[in-house]
Write a structure and sequence with these properties.
Blueprint (H helix, E strand, L loop, with lengths): L6 E3 L19 E3 H8 L13 H34 L12 H22 L9 H9 L5 H25 L16 H24 L8 H20 L5 H11 L7 H23 L3 H4 L17 H5 L7
Antiparallel strand pairs: 1-2
Helix pairs in contact: 2-3, 2-5, 3-7, 4-5, 4-6, 4-9, 5-8, 6-7, 6-9
């Protein structure tokens, strides 16, 4: 019998923002699994709990360190690719990049996120991205206080990563997000929205949605960032993360007049991802292809009942 089948009376577990308002708990019924998560200071999509302050502080510190390591390695790797493609300290490193450089940069960000997310996955959840954190907050996976603490930490991590990467590398620091010539603000905003939505939706389905393969979530998340970069580097420089956009701007002391489109597009992408996630959850998507994670062998495809095999008179021996 699964944990979810056991119902227990609420033990200092609060629905929504009740605890935030200081209200005493009422008599509510929660599953044993939900109470266990609460005792660990964790939230579920339907039960949001206030974590002890020291856990929020640890999450804030972990997100700062993780975001810094992720973006520092990504920035220095990307700058290496940009610098190598120019071979000239005086040659501008911004603008349209060749396909080899695009692939190198995409791999730099994707692999850096994959490794660092895997390392920090069991420590902080490894968001490293305010847009991802916002999407987790929208589904109840992050408390109000924790969101308010980790987002500034992520932005600070991005700024420190950008500053150090600029100091330690050669050439013009060319990893700042800029629109390619001919790309309009509207185009850039929608590109950022869709690529960020892909990343956030991957996090929600592979990490927030617990499954037997959840431990492989960092792989899928890293690949989502990789493919997002392939689809947007040539057009927007591939922001997909407010901390990533913010870091190089701070390092270069340059904020383009259209920089706001990155932040707006990325947060809209977060909302789009949550909307899609909510639709699938509301209509119980697990009933569509739930057999994929079913251990019951009888849930496997039955060839004897398949139209093609019925036509040829196939009979299964199983």
């Amino acid at each position: 019998m699964s944990d979810d089948s056991h119902a227990v009376t609420q033990r200092n577990v609060f629905k929504g923002d009740d605890l935030e308002n200081g209200q005493l708990p009422g008599e509510k019924t929660f599953t044993l699994k939900q109470v266990m998560l609460h005792e660990q200071g964790r939230s579920t999509p339907d039960v949001r709990v206030r974590n002890p302050l020291h856990l929020d502080l640890l999450a804030m510190f972990g997100e700062f360190v993780g975001t810094f390591l992720f973006l520092y390695m990504a920035f220095t790797s990307a700058q290496s690719g940009v610098y190598s493609s120019t071979q000239d300290l005086n040659k501008p490193t911004s603008g349209v990049k060749d396909n080899q450089t695009v692939l190198f940069i995409a791999l730099s960000f994707g692999m850096s996120l994959l490794v660092n997310a895997w390392v920090f996955f069991r420590i902080t959840g490894a968001a490293f991205n305010p847009a991802v954190s916002f999407s987790l907050w929208l589904i109840g996976g992050v408390s109000n206080r924790r969101l308010a603490m980790i987002v500034p930490a992520q932005m600070a991590g991005g700024a420190c990563a950008g500053a150090l990467a600029k100091v330690l590398t050669l050439g013009e620091f060319g990893v700042e997000n800029t629109l390619a010539p001919g790309i309009t603000i509207a185009q850039g905003l929608f590109i950022e929205m869709f690529t960020t939505a892909l990343l956030c939706f991957t996090v929600l389905m592979c990490a927030a949605e617990k499954s037997k393969g959840a431990f492989l979530a960092p792989v899928a998340i890293g690949l989502a960032l990789f493919i997002g970069h392939l689809g947007s580097i040539g057009w927007t420089g591939a922001g997909i993360n407010p901390a990533r956009t913010f870091g190089p701007s701070v390092a270069n002391g340059n904020f383009e007049s259209y920089t706001w489109l990155y932040y707006i597009g990325q947060m809209l992408g977060s909302v789009v991802a949550v909307a899609l996630y909510t639709v699938f959850k509301h209509f119980d998507y697990k009933q569509v292809a739930g057999f994929i994670e079913d251990d019951d062998i009888t849930s496997s495809a039955d060839l004897a009942s398949a139209p093609l095999f019925k036509l040829v008179g196939y009979k299964s021996d199983v």
